[in-house]
């Protein structure tokens, strides 16, 4: 048991370091100075059978407080009334463009192809991405996100949250989104950008074409966001912008099965990350698993339980503090106190998602 005790101590020490130093870089980051957005922006949205979401969310994007921007929606082979909705918006707004794709027997390009066409149609170098089922948190969203493009910055990462609703599943979904954001935004702030989310991110058109677009992972259905950032992001060209003005808000899944399938699609790209990023993420996840497993073993046998409980409690307090501060930074509320329980729950759920992807391959985007 003494060996397990020291394994527990090492895992706890690594966890404290990760929370206090790595995640603390986000939780205690100083507030950015606001400035007036000047550079013109193109917003690209790929949509497939999204008539209801487009009706609800497009007005909020089209009425942003930004001096010069355009909206480009790529209708990716929709079979509902998406075309009619887009036609109506194009008649009302001069800065609204529509690109339409039709699926054929011999070809279906998928979301990456749709986004590529949207980028090619963009008139501006600075391109912001979001999804049809997302709405900006404020009229300053576009200006706040584009203001992240300081000198030399080519990628800006934001936070995409989910609507708050009643129920345990909704709280779990929102916690999962915050936990993921804490990880990728914190590492990006420390100069190690490894992913972003297509619900709320931006990069320069020039960077996209210098990288040959999605060519290196075109064969993978997902990854238009995280794989592109993993491939092109570095310590000098990536910026992080968060806050109540800079977020997007999406509709969460309403059943565990739908959320599970959504997570399956999201997790198909992780194995394609750079080796260094995979090592960092494995160390993070592994230390959490070892910490909880060793704690449980030590408590069951009663080995120096007072010291073990003290270490566990100290780590939990640091975890709660970081989540509370990060939640404030991201304009969220009411989730931080769930961290100890939901962290363990996700440890149990994620291996099931990974196993499911090994057995059954996810389908096309927006079909699961």
**Which strands sit side by side, in order, in the main sheet?**
3-2-1-4-8-6-9
Q: So what's the CATH class of the largest domain?
A: Alpha Beta
Q: Biggest sheet, open or closed, and with what strands and sense?
A: 7 strands, mixed
How would you classify the helix and strand content by structural class?
A: alpha/beta
Count of alpha and pi helical runs? 12
Based on DSSP secondary structure assignment, what is the total number of beta strands?
Answer: 10
Ranges with pLDDT <50 over ≥5 residues?
none
Silhouette: globular
The share of residues in extended strands comes to: 5-15%
What fold name stands as the CATH topology of the largest domain? Spore Coat Polysaccharide Biosynthesis Protein SpsA, Chain A
Radius of gyration: 21 Å
Q: What is the oligomer described by this structure?
A: single chain
| Ends apart, CA distance between termini | 46 Å
Question: How does this structure look, described?
Answer:
By secondary structure, the protein is α/β, with parallel strands linked by helices. β2, α3 and β3 form a beta-alpha-beta unit. The model has no long low-confidence stretch (mean pLDDT 90). It has helices spanning 2-27, 51-62, 82-92, 110-121, 141-146, 168-189, 205-210, 226-232, 256-266, 275-301, 305-329, 339-359, and strands at 41-47, 69-76, 96-101, 126-129, 134-136, 155-157, 160-162, 201-204, 238-240, 248-250. It is built from twelve helices and ten strands. The protein has two domains: 2-26 and 275-359, no CATH class; 32-255, Spore Coat Polysaccharide Biosynthesis Protein SpsA, Chain A, CATH 3.90.550.10. The strands form two sheets. A seven-stranded mixed β-sheet has the order 3-2-1-4-8-6-9, with helices on both faces. Strands 5-10-7 form a three-stranded mixed β-sheet. The longest helix is centred in the last third of the chain and has 27 residues, at 275-301. It is 51% helix and 12% strand.
